[in-house]
Specification:
One of its GO terms (biological process) is L-leucine biosynthetic process. It comes from Jeotgalicoccus coquinae. Belongs to the isocitrate and isopropylmalate dehydrogenases family. LeuB type 1 subfamily. With 352 residues, this protein is an alpha/beta fold. The protein has two domains: 188 residues, 3-Layer(aba) Sandwich (Isopropylmalate Dehydrogenase), CATH 3.40.718.10; 137 residues, Isopropylmalate Dehydrogenase (3-Layer(aba) Sandwich). It is built from twelve helices and 14 strands. Strands 2-1-3-12-11-4-5-10-8-9 form a ten-stranded mixed β-sheet, with helices on both faces. It has a two-stranded antiparallel ribbon with strand order 6-7. The chain is globular. It binds nicotinamide-adenine-dinucleotide, 3-isopropylmalic acid and manganese (II) ion (MN). Manganese (II) ion (MN) binds next to helix 9.
């Protein structure tokens, strides 16, 4: 198979973990006889510095002719007070390519059970998928502005029926491939948008009689996610709730550094990135955990290229390395040897 991938390393630890992705693609290509070509483009803070634009046209055009997109992370303290923000580049690329379906699997590798700050008895058996709406809601609603000379501010949460319906369908389809249990998370006791969300979930559920559906308020869901994570199978929720709950879910696995994601559209182009950010506090030290990025490559192979065996091999290699007693600095595993980003990458590749 021949595939062309645009890589967007971005800022902070982004370039460090993108190196891991490149190494992994090379290794998978050699082992399974695929030709993966990769071309790097700018996004985020580095793109602001070089082009005064967090998502330059050149990057968009390159992505348009790509088979898939891999992203590291954007943002950092350097641009905190800048008028143009790195994060705008990320939001813009999601919107431009209509990447409305963000799949965030939370799988706990056996050897990570002990690394969670939660009791092992609580995290044992956790395996859930957060389906996050990614191109609507509070992130994109207009108006979003300061008023009255900066004394008041407005952000708007908007959704159309169609925007909710399509993400809800993805969630039901996902549930059908898993344990057939869907939890829709909202704030229907307060928000009108949530009340419409519930109606749509109930309507679509009639087409999926095998799936058991529950509605949960986001505050209670946040509590249950860490007190009883194995209760959940598929969670579907709006953009901001999904952002918050997925970082919370990383506590189950012991580190934000191990969780991957896929952002998918209806026309087939996908963007794959770890769920964490640019981690400015550890950038440049070669200690970032590359697992979230490497599993994102695995998701790309599976969702964009249909390479299920190769994708499973990556997951298996990650599990193997952790089970063999190796970790990165962010993981708390008693007795395990701490590796650098580059060493962890090599170790995982050697287990393929
Ligand atoms: P962050 O996710 O970058 O970091 C939170 C904590 O997790 C930090 O202590 C960091 O060191 C740690 N961490 C994250 N990834 C890690 C990894 N791979 N290995 C080891 N430790 C890891 O969140 P933040 O500090 O709130 O945000 C920093 C910047 O990143 C901000 O500008 C934010 O907007 C941006 N951000 C970008 C993305 C993205 O590009 N998709 C996602 C989240 C945050
Ligand atoms: C994520 C990030 C982004 C989001 C930010 C950087 C815009 O937190 O990918 O989870 O909120 O979607
Ligand atoms: Mn986030």
């Amino acid at each position: 198979m021949k595939k062309h991938i645009i890589t967007l390393p971005g800022d902070g630890i982004g370039p460090e973990i993108m190196n891991s992705a490149h190494e992994l693609l090379k290794a998978v290509g050699e082992k399974y006889n695929h030709e993966f070509t990769a071309e790097s483009k700018d996004i985020g803070g580095i793109a602001i510095d070089k082009h005064n634009d967090p998502l330059p046209l050149e990057t968009i055009e390159a992505c348009e002719s790509a088979d898939a997109i891999l992203l590291g992370a954007v943002g950092g303290p350097k641009w905190t007070d800048s008028k143009i923000r790195p994060e705008q580049g990320l939001l813009k690329i999601r919107k431009h390519f209509n990447l409305f379906a963000n799949l965030r699997p939370v799988t706990i590798f056996d050897s990570l059970e002990a690394s969670s700050p939660l009791k092992q008895s609580i995290v044992h058996g956790s395996d859930l998928m957060i389906v996050r709406e990614l191109t609507g809601g509070l992130y994109f609603g207009q108006p979003s502005e300061r008023r009255d000379g900066g004394q008041s501010v407005v952000d708007t949460l908007t959704y159309t029926y169609g925007e909710i319906e399509r993400i809800v369908r993805i969630a039901f389809d996902t549930a059908m491939t898993r344990r057939k249990h869907l939890t829709s998370v909202d704030k229907a006791n307060v928000l009108e948008s949530s009340r419409m969300w519930r109606e749509i979930v109930n309507t679509v559920s009639k087409e999926y009689p095998e799936v058991t559906v529950e509605h949960e308020l986001v505050d209670a869901a946040a509590m249950k996610l860490i007190t009883n994570p194995s209760y959940f199978d598929v969670i579907v929720t709006e953009n901001l709730f999904g952002d918050i709950l997925s970082d919370e879910a990383s506590v189950i696995t012991g580190s934000l550094g191990v969780l991957p994601s896929a952002s998918l559209s209806e026309n087939g182009l996908g963007l794959f990135e770890p769920i964490h950010g640019s981690a400015p506090d550890i950038a440049g030290e070669n200690i970032a955990n590359p697992i979230g990025m490497m599993l994102s490559v695995g998701m790309m192979l599976k969702y964009s290229f249909g390479l299920h065996e190769e994708s499973a091999a990556i997951e298996k290699a990650v599990n193997q390395v952790l089970a063999d007693g190796f970790k990165t600095a962010d993981l708390k595993i008693d007795g395990a040897v701490t590796l650098s980003t580059a060493e962890m990458t090599e170790k995982i590749i050697s287990c393929l």
